[in-house]
Predict the 3D structure of the following.
Amino acid sequence: MKSIDLIEQKTKNVVLSVLPNINSEDLSDTSNLFSIGLDSVNAMTLVLKLQNAFGIKFSASDVNAENFQSVATIIKLINKKQS
């Protein structure tokens, strides 16, 4: 499995753990996370869980609505942080 596929799978698992009312069938790479239940409180939980899952640190400027809009934007951010 390519590393981007691993990042995608891990990211989806973390997102699903933060949004318990969403199942994997309802979550596409382009689903707007804020429209399916992500709010400021669970967004911070998501940030922390992603940092732990990937062993990375997001800077304050990384943590914005644009970067956490969808699984695809999160994958792009994580990929950038890891390279």
